[in-house]
Specification:
The complex is a heterodimer of chains A (518) and B (466).
Chain A (H helix, E strand, L loop, with lengths): L37 E6 L2 H6 L37 E5 L2 E6 L5 E8 L14 H8 L9 H11 L2 E6 L4 E8 L3 H14 L4 H17 L2 H14 L12 H4 L4 H11 L5 E6 L3 H11 L20 E5 L8 E9 L7 H11 L1 E3 L13 H7 L5 E11 L2 E10 L4 H17 L4 H18 L3 H15 L5 H9 L3 H11 L5 E6 L8 H4 L8
Parallel strand pairs in A: 3-7, 8-13
Antiparallel strand pairs in A: 2-3, 4-6, 4-7, 5-6, 9-12, 9-13, 10-11, 11-12
Helix pairs in contact in A: 3-4, 10-13, 12-16, 13-15
Chain B lengths: L1 H20 L4 H4 L5 E4 L5 E6 L5 E8 L13 H8 L9 H10 L3 E6 L4 E8 L3 H13 L5 H20 L1 H13 L13 H6 L2 H11 L5 E7 L3 H12 L21 E6 L6 E9 L7 H11 L1 E3 L11 H8 L5 E8 L4 E9 L4 H17 L3 H17 L4 H14 L6 H9 L3 H11 L5 E7 L7 H6 L7
Parallel strand pairs in B: 2-6, 7-12
Antiparallel strand pairs in B: 1-2, 3-5, 3-6, 4-5, 8-11, 8-12, 9-10, 10-11
The chains are: A alpha+beta (518), B alpha+beta (466).
Protein name (chain A): Mitochondrial-processing peptidase subunit alpha
Family (chain A): Belongs to the peptidase M16 family.
Pfam families (chain A): Peptidase_M16, Peptidase_M16_C
Chain lengths: 518, 466
């Protein structure tokens, strides 16, 4: 039905169709609501619009200088095969590590990783400092206002992003290759010379309140898991600044953060898509003022096991989210690779999720939990690994009155791993999947850059992906069972968030659970 | 239309291109080549090789999507996408799934309004196998009646999930009202009634009409050898895919209707609003200027680092007056039209101010665009376009989409040349054409009792004075 205007002609309107009110209400169409909407539809109205236009400003002509896109190319270029991949190069400038790899393309990723995180924070002293620095590091500096920073970056075709975690702080800069010096200079300025004006701090506190109120159950469960698993030791510190500590964020704390963590030894600068010499030269100049210093220290983190419960009365979908967790080794643990294979082998996801084969449809948690328990809305294995400890576990969701069943099923999955060896087929599948994921992700310049930087910060060296693949190949069934047994030798941790946690088992009810002993 | 464009191209643009391309750095001019081969029957194979790559993406891009459906079979393209994974005469559903998972690959598909895409991400050595599997599921899908019946509930469940995403829901409503009565106004999933009633015959018919050699592009990127890819594609698809007939499937033209659709839920806590003007097609001379305009208007989020300091004037004003939780500018292109507009999530008591500032900032571009913001947006747009090509999955997607929309792959040099050629006068002209005194389409969901009516917003699509 083509009433109305023909494309290209102007100011032909369809007459008013009128307001139509609908009363039918499909929960399929509008899920998450209980009451029907009032729906109105209205088409443009000729009479009104044509009335008032005598005085309108004359618009400029609508012709432009550019031709449409046709089959014939506008410019001819010299095409060439992509160059052979380069190796990662490393240089130390007076204790400061610089590592990079050249990669063809018009964009460059540069980043700085700092050995700082919420595990170094202390209640009442600098709680929330890392999260606050992440939010504040793009604000006014000694040389630029906040708006200068943003508009200059935009004008350079660059983007800077910061991310804090429990033990690493990362700031990255992606820019057009030609502008990498100018863009990185802004990133460095943000990192070293923020002035933390009172209005910047106000904005930051407001955003922190907003994040606290908007954070979903999935994020809270993970945040709570670390507190439950590591208790009062450093890795158990909250990462997102708790509401009661937000008022305490101040400029002094931010300057203290800088002088404590920004030392040459505690930083790694890296990049992908840049000549190494160019990066070294740039870093030498820009970070010259960063002093040498001791690495920051904190108490060792000790896995304790425990629980976290948060009642969330107004959550949208009415589901309770539960995660169980067990201890695994740190980044430095020799079982790191088999632990990651175990996570892939358990796999899982949402009971309804996008994506075809390859997302782990034949992983353990799909076959034995999601496909069997109609009430399990989600079940997914996760690992949270840091420099001095880690957790492996399963996180999921269900209607509140099935929370106990869900928890038991998760614990059973781990218990089973300690007694029944995994099959050859599922181990091979998990190995292939993790290898495919690693290699595919490292095709991305941003991921590659971050991988180099984080590995240099963590290990002081970078392992070539082919080495990682060899380690994956070497994983055996016995490795998997050994890790599961070690994990279950300490009490499990449990973290839950939802509208009703009555059916979530208490820590005391599950703390006695152990797998088969060695 | 093509010849017309060519003529304009050589007459008005040739010198611009020659002058500016010489100044580009080598990484722009010497980009890796996109090899394109057309096989007998019209099937095109296009690929870009990344040397040293261990993995690859290979996809089948089909010039078909929900807009080519009718009211009766709306949802068929998407239904077929589901059925492709449910087994062929060679593989059962489970065999297919296990095969992909065991080889550490990924197989996925999506349907949009104009395109249907199936793709696989695999190890280098598995590329031929991936092509074989893609061919198998596309050309030899069993379409088992019982499986079709089982899939109805899955799709209805997917509908619920899609509609939980307010952004998706509102863009569906926006298309429904803006392109009412035409194919482009229909949803991708189709109405519930069709999902419950589509038959095997409908799906088979859809394959016969649309899955044809001349409407398909096989696209590859990463660890791909173009010659080998062509050979494998020839073996797998060559004799099995119907070649393009003389009669092309007629496309129902899109007709934009100024209109709005409002779905009021007073108990929701946030209002979702999409306001759009009719935009330009993929190949329009206005396509790139609109992208620059999109970048000028920008996007903003309350939690983003930029806060009130965003370069976009609209962003500054939204942040300053706390008008919204977030907004983004969108610029959707189709074969013969487009939608250019702003999607915002806002509290209910700010909606009138929000609409005032949004329209004022859009119309501002007609009269008061500054050289500085155009220059900044141009550089930003170049960076965004390069950024999107990070990794072979994105490159393969880019190749496939461009071959379907432009008929060729634009080189980075051409993209840069087109962006560089745009000046402030072009942006004003583009805004004058698409925004000034034009009817708009609007969709809104949530507590929208204070959202101004159609005429309030329509009146603000032009200015009487500065």
């Amino acid at each position: 039905m083509f009433v109305g205007r023909v494309l290209g002609s102007r100011n032909v309107y369809i007459g008013r169709v009128g307001l139509r009110a609908f009363s039918s209400f499909s929960q399929l169409q509008y899920p998450l609501r209980t009451n029907p909407p009032v729906i109105t539809q209205h088409n443009a109205n000729t009479a009104f619009v044509e009335g008032n236009k005598d005085d309108k400003l004359e618009p400029p002509c609508t012709d432009i200088k550019q031709p449409p896109i046709t089959l014939s190319p506008l410019v001819s270029i010299v095409s060439q095969a992509s160059p052979t991949p380069a190796e990662v190069e490393t240089t130390y400038i007076d204790g400061l590590c610089v590592a990079s790899v050249e990669k063809a393309g018009g964009m460059t990723s540069v980043g700085i990783c700092i050995g700082a995180g919420s595990k170094f924070e202390a209640a009442g002293v600098d709680r929330g400092a890392n999260h606050a620095f992440e939010l504040l590091c793009m604000k006014d500096t000694e040389t630029m206002s906040s708006s200068d920073i943003i508009s200059r970056l935009d004008g350079l075709g660059a983007g800077v992003a910061a991310l804090s975690s429990r033990d690493q702080f990362m700031i990255t800069c992606d820019s057009l290759r030609d502008n990498v010096e100018d863009a990185s200079a802004i990133m460095v300025d943000c990192l070293l010379r923020g002035t933390f004006q009172e209005d910047n701090l106000d904005d930051c506190r407001q955003v922190m309140h907003w994040i606290n109120s908007e954070m979903g159950g999935v994020e809270w469960v993970k945040e709570g898991m670390m507190g439950a698993a590591f208790g009062d030791s450093p890795l158990g510190n909250p990462h997102f600044c708790p509401v009661e500590d937000i008022a305490g964020i101040n400029g002094e704390m931010m300057r203290g953060w800088r002088s404590k963590f920004l030392t040459r030894e505690n930083m790694v600068v890296g990049g992908a898509g840049i000549e190494h010499a160019r990066l070294v030269d740039m870093v030498g100049r820009m970070l010259e003022e960063v002093p040498n210093g001791e690495l920051p220290t904190c108490e060792p983190s000790v896995y304790a096991g425990g629980e976290f419960r948060m009642i969330e009365p107004n959550n949208m979908d009415g589901l309770t989210r539960v995660a169980v967790g067990f201890e695994v080794g740190s980044w430095h643990d020799e079982d790191l690779v088999p632990t990651c294979v175990l996570q892939t082998l358990l796999g899982g996801g949402d009971s309804f999720s996008a994506g075809g084969p390859g997302k782990g449809m034949y992983s353990r948690l799909y076959r034995e939990v999601l496909n069997r328990c109609y009430w399990a809305e989600a079940a997914e294995a996760y690992t949270i690994i840091h420099n001095d400890g880690g957790v492996i576990g399963i996180a999921g969701a269900c209607v509140p009155n099935k929370a106990q069943d869900l928890t038991v099923v998760f614990l059973e999955q781990f218990a089973k791993l300690t007694v029944v060896p995994v099959s050859d087929e599922e181990l091979d599948r998990a190995k292939n999947m993790i290898r495919g994921n690693i290699l595919t992700q490292l095709e991305s310049r941003q991921v590659l850059s971050e991988d180099i930087i984080r590995q240099m910060q963590t290990y002081g060296s970078r392992e070539h992906p082919s080495k990682v693949c060899e380690k994956i190949d070497a994983v055996t069934k016995d490795d998997i069972m050994r890790i599961a047994r070690r994990a279950m030798s300490k009490p499990p941790s449990i973290s839950s968030v939802g509208p009703d946690l009555t059916y979530v088992p208490k820590f005391e009810q599950i703390s006695h659970l152990r797998g088969a002993s060695n | 239309m093509i010849s017309n464009g060519l003529r304009i191209g050589t007459r008005r643009f040739g010198s611009v291109a020659a002058a500016s391309s010489a100044s580009y750095p080598s990484y722009v001019l010497q980009a890796p080549e996109t090899s394109v081969t057309t096989l007998d029957g019209g099937l095109r194979v296009a690929s870009e090789t990344t040397s040293g790559s261990e993995t690859a993406t290979v996809g089948v891009f089909i010039d078909a999507g929900s807009r080519f459906e009718t009211a009766q079979n709306n949802g068929a393209a998407h239904f077929l996408e589901h059925m492709a994974f449910k087994g062929t005469s060679k593989r059962t559903q489970q065999q297919l799934e296990v095969e992909i998972e065991n080889m550490g690959g990924h197989l996925n598909a999506y349907t949009s309004r104009e395109q249907t895409v199936y793709y696989a991400k695999v190890f280098k050595k598995d590329v031929p196998k991936a092509v074989e599997i893609l061919g198998d599921i596309l050309l030899d899908s069993k379409l088992d009646e019982a499986a079709i019946d089982r899939e109805r509930d899955v799709i209805l469940r997917e509908m619920e999930e899609v509609n939980k995403n307010q952004e998706e829901l509102i863009l569906d409503h926006l298309h429904e009202t803006a392109f009412q009565g035409t194919g482009l106004g229909r949803t991708i999933l189709g109405p519930e009634q069709n999902i419950r009633s589509l038959t095997r015959g409908d799906l088979k018919n859809y394959i016969d009409t649309h899955y044809r050699a001349d409407k398909m592009v096989i696209s590859g990127a990463g660890a791909i050898d173009h010659g080998e890819l062509c050979k494998v594609v020839g073996d797998v698809f060559g004799s099995r895919v119907a070649s393009g007939g003389a009669v092309d499937f007629p496309m129902e033209p899109a007709v934009f209707t100024g209109s709005d659709k409002r779905v009021r839920f007073d108990s929701d806590d946030k209002a979702h609003i999409a306001l759009a003007f009719e935009g330009a097609s993929w190949t329009s001379e206005y396509a790139f200027p609109l992208m620059v305009m999109q970048t000028i208007l920008g996007a903003w989020d309350r939690t983003s680092g930029s806060g009130k300091n965003i370069a976009s004037k609209l962003g500054q004003e939204v942040a300053e007056h706390e008008l919204a939780h977030s907004f983004m500018t969108f610029n959707n292109c189709y074969k013969d039209t487009g939608l250019f507009g702003i999607y915002a999530v806002a509290p209910d008591n700010k909606l009138e101010d929000l609409m005032w500032y949004v329209t004022s900032n859009m119309v501002r571009l007609v009269h008061k665009t500054s050289d500085e913001e155009v220059a900044r947006a141009k550089t930003q747009l170049k960076a965004n376009m390069l950024m999107q090509l990070d990794g072979h999955a994105n490159v393969a997607e880019d190749i496939g989409r461009q071959l379907l929309t432009y008929g060729r792959r634009l080189t980075m040099a051409e993209i840069f040349t087109r962006i560089d050629a745009i000046d402030t006068a072009d942006i004003k002209a583009t805004a004058a054409k698409f925004i000034n005194d034009q009817d708009h389409a609007l969709a809104a969901i949530g507590p929208i009792h204070a959202l101004p009516d159609y005429n309030y917003i329509r009146r603000r699509s032009y200015w009487l004075r500065y």
